[in-house]
Description:
Keywords: Cell membrane, Membrane, Transmembrane, Transmembrane helix. It is found in: Cell membrane. Helices cover about 80% and strands about 0% of the residues. It is mainly α and about 300 residues long. The chain has one domain. The relative contact order is 0.21. The model has no long low-confidence stretch (mean pLDDT about 80).
Amino acid sequence: MGVYSTKKVAVLIAMLGVVLFSAKAVMVKLVYQYEVDTVTLLLFRMMLSLPFYLLVAMLNWSVLKSKLTVKIAISVVVFGFLGYYLASYFDFLGLQYIKASLERIILFIYPTVVLVLSSVFLKRKITRVQVLAILITYLGIVIMYYQEPNFMELSSLLGVGLIVLSALTYASYLVGSDWLIPQLGSTLFTSLAMMVSCVCVCLHYAVVGDFQFTSYPHQVYWLSLAMAIFSTVIPSYLISYAIKILGAPNFSVIASLGPVSTIVLAWMFLGETLSWGQILGAIVVIGGVYVVTQKK
């Protein structure tokens, strides 16, 4: 398969990964209907995902032994903590206060954060066009937010703030993954990062959890399993592979599909609606991120 064909396949894989990952917000909102707390839901999601990641890590044991150094191990722990534990925790908390469609639009600022972090830590220059694109992106978020009913309420402000924190931590993970994936390979890196996240979630639950694992309706467990397989395990590998082939900037362009897919899924399964103002805000955000991820 030629380079061009490989990239075309990677684009399709990236699109599928983005759509599946975006479905997570809808599943979280569905589970919250059964009065499940954030940490318990995170625990269900990660523990049901863990066997898959352990299996893949074991299958790549020889590669792990040959490539894992102290520096790489520390980096995996740091970025696993940031990208799949802390980012998910902030995201799940924020979804208690705002709609899934708005969550996905706000979370979509992470490519602009990747740009800033790359400038600070990787010494990549930010151009004037990129600065303009960042301003456009945040303008779109403001338009979206001001269309929300009761947008000045503390709960809405808190929800937006938590999703912004999720975007910041996930962007940090992407910057780190751009360096670590070539070191370990996309499959092994993803498995190790997710295993770190599982440990973090278990420790968190050990401190604050009530250990009432069997007291929830059966829908909670089925939705958690679906979230683990279709919105965690599968898209995590698809996205890592896409970043490996396309690079984080090009992947960010494809990620513009994320807010659109979440809006459609939220309309189908949650009954959420969008005003014309919110649709305009979504278009502005997607346009800003598209500009910011262009090479020229």
